[in-house]
Every structure is written in structure tokens, then in C-alpha cells.
Amino acid sequence: QVELEESGGGVVQPGRSLRLSCAASGFTFYLSGMHWVRQAPGKGLEWVTSIWNDGTNPHYADSVKDRFTISRDNSKNTLYLQLSSLRAEDTAVYYCARERDSCHWCFDLWGRGTLVTVSS
Amino acid sequence: DIQLTQSPSLLSASIGDRVTITCRASQGISIDLAWYQQQPGKAPTVLIYRASTLQSGVPSRFSGSGSGTEFTLTISSLQPDDFATYYCQQLHTYPRSFGQGTRVEI
To answer: Minimal Cα distance from B101: which residue of A?
Structure first.
């Protein structure tokens, strides 16, 4: 079964850190570029960050640059997102998504998301 | 950064209607655009990529067109499952920005 499953969300105080994970199964993870996308409550989709299949060339949205770090462990078929210096405006559902060359780099597979709530 | 502006933000329609959503890019992006549908409480799913190519398994009532800075998503005959929010996304450059979304409601 081809799927992505996020974990690690929860309630965290402003200024603290959290690490999200995204476990991939049913496909060749090490061949796929991966992304994180978030959605604040009642709001639209916001692209957050991406990483190439080999773990290089990360890109970040300006809103998270220098605070969030994307990484992956291809031996464990897992994508990570380290969130630091969290702010209230980081409260959102965080989705991981697979990028596919075959659909012109569209995001063809998404996880169900994990909710991060930043609150004191 | 490339900004995507969708119109309208809210669209009221009925079963069987033909509906069109527009996505305008702040600069040319060739055909590097995808459309997604998101049902409430669910993750998005891709409908269209490369501006006009239908993703496998997506009903043929969905179609996309455009290039450069102006794109459209058309649903030829609205069905009950189509009441959802639709997003365009540019895949031309980083950041991989999304439009603000168009909610299609009854």
C-alpha cells in the first residue's frame, strides 16, 4: 500500500522545538523528492520546504527559513521536519507530500497530516 | 517569488452547472501548474498537472487550460463530490506557491 504517514505533532509552547516525521511505504522512497506543506486552521495551503531524493538541495519558505530544517533518512524511508523557535502562527496541520517527475513535479501523494498547536 | 491569485474565492453553484476557476501568476510559469482538490478534513489530491493533463483516475469532467500567466480549471457538470476547495500550485520555481483557494459550495 502506497502511503505517507506523519507523526510528532502536538501542543508546544512558543519558542520551543518539535520534530515531525513522515514514514513512507509502498514505493521507492529514495527516488522521490519530498515536501512539507502546512495549513493553518481555516486557511489555505502553504508550501513550507522541500528536499531532493538524495537529501540535498533543501529549499524553505521565507516564513520558516532559519527556524525549520528538513532532512530524510532513506535507510528508514522517513522524512523529517525539525521545527524550532516556534510561533503562534506556525499552528497548522503539517502534511508531507511526494513529488513525481511523471506528473511534472506535482505532489501526487499526501499524508493525512499532523496537527501542531503553538500555545502557552 | 511567484504569487498565484485565484478567482473567485467562493463560488456558489448547483449540481450539473459548468464552473470555471481562474488562476493568475505574477510572472510567466510556462505550463508548470497543477490543480488540487481538497475535501474538508482531508489532504489535497491532484487533479491536473502540466496545466492541462488529467491525473490518472480523475473524472473527465475536470479539465485545465492555459499557459504563461493565466490558467483555468473547468468542471463541465458539477457533481455532489465536487463541492470542495480547489487550489492551483506553480511548479516553475521555488517557493512552490499555492493560490489562496476557491471554495465551491451549493
So the answer is: A44
Within 64-93 of A, beta carbons closer than 8 Å to B belong to none
CB contact under 8 A, A103 and B101: no
For residue B21, what is its C-alpha cell?
A: 476557476
| Dmax (CA) of chain B | 38
Polymer length in residues for chain A = 120
**What is the rounded distance in angstroms from the CA atom of residue B25 to the CA atom of residue B31?**
11
Q: Are B22 and B71 within 8 A, CB to CB?
A: yes
Is B36 within 8 Å of A107 when comparing Cβ atoms?
A: yes
**B57-95 tens-digit pLDDT:** 999 999 999 999 999 999 999 999 999 999 999 999 999
| pLDDT tens digits, B15-43 | 999 999 999 999 999 999 999 999 999 99
CB atoms within 10 A of CB B16: 9
User: Touching check for A107 and chain B: CB below 8 Å?
Assistant: yes
Whether the CB-CB separation of A10 and A18 falls below 8 Å is answered with yes
Report d(CA A116, CA A114) in Å as an integer. Answer: 7
CA angle B106, B4, B66 (to 5 degrees): 80
Across the strands, what pairs with B85? B38, B103
Task: Quickly tell me which residue has 483516475 as its cell.
Answer: B57
Inter-residue contact A72 to A54 (CB < 8 Å) = no
